[in-house]
Design brief:
Blueprint lengths: L6 E3 L1 H8 L7 H7 L8 H13 L2 H10 L3 E3 L4 H4 L7 H6 L1 H14 L1 E3 L17 E6 L3 H13 L2 E6 L2 H9 L6 E5 L1 E2 L2 E2 H10 L8 E5 L4 H10 L3 E4 L4 H11 L4
Parallel strand pairs: 4-5, 4-6, 6-9, 9-10
Antiparallel strand pairs: 1-2, 3-10, 7-8
Helix pairs in contact: 2-4, 7-11
Length: 250
């Protein structure tokens, strides 16, 4: 089974997951919930470790035979967003994460400014900065939209996986992304990793928005390439200071 094959759960598989009782094995359930029509078999194998990864092909065969999953054609956009979370990066970020967690407790935000960026996107004369807010909290998204517009941004909002893909496909490439860690059908850290692996998006500044200020969450954000980390509830001045810092405008 090629590592770049992608599978999605069929309607029958969805019924199996949502039913009061299941007839499939724990291994099949574990794999079934990981199949989202975006991640490849290779990416899933890497995320579950060697022991579970060694049985993925046989488990997938059983799911296919039962009609619970089906192959899907890779999305050209999503297919280009691939990244492996390096254990070396996690180790290297450990000391910074300790400092970051302490800073969060004091000031409710932390900005990482040491990451080297490429050349900023060239804008036409008079063209405003562009920002994408990825957050499913409607009131917060509108609140952030208001303040970023006031700061000179043209702002787009995405609150689900489909909306995220749609907004990133639209021109122009954003100058800033505010990214919620928890979405109803997506993981903010996963979206961040995909942004960092995309050739056109990899240098876009990303500030994470989250209610999780624990050390593990901060470490994961830093290791995945976050430039800023702002906790909820968002304080306007803290957020704007983070935005100005990552854009080099303060």
């Amino acid at each position: 089974m090629p590592s770049n094959d992608i599978y999605a759960v069929t309607s029958k598989g969805q019924q199996e997951l949502r039913g009061a009782a299941t007839t499939i094995s724990p291994a099949e359930v574990d794999l079934l919930v990981r199949l989202d029509g975006i991640l490849s078999i290779g990416q899933i194998r890497q995320s579950v470790g060697d022991v579970v990864g060694a049985t993925i092909e046989s488990t997938m065969g059983m799911l296919l035979a039962k009609g619970l999953v089906e192959p899907v054609a890779p999305d050209p956009f999503a297919g280009s967003l691939q990244l492996q979370l390096s254990a070396t990066a996690l180790t290297a970020a450990d000391a910074e994460a300790d400092f970051c967690a302490a800073t969060l407790k004091k000031s409710n935000y932390y900005v990482r400014i040491a990451r080297t960026r490429g050349t900023p996107r060239q804008r036409a004369p008079g063209e405003r900065l562009s920002a994408i807010i990825v957050d499913d909290e409607e009131h917060l998204a509108k609140f952030l939209h208001h303040y970023l517009t006031f700061e000179g941004f043209d702002v787009r909002i995405a609150g689900s996986r489909a909306e995220v893909v749609a907004e990133f496909r639209k021109p122009p490439i954003p100058d800033l992304v505010l990214l919620d860690v928890m979405l109803p059908d997506a993981d903010g850290f996963d979206i961040l990793q995909r942004i960092r692996a995309h050739p056109q998006l990899k240098d876009v500044p990303v500030i994470m928005l989250t209610a999780k200020a624990n050390r593990e969450s901060v470490l994961k954000g830093l290791a995945s390439g976050a430039d800023g980390y702002v906790t909820k509830p968002v304080e306007t001045e803290s957020l704007l200071q983070a935005v100005r810092t990552v854009l080099g405008s303060q």
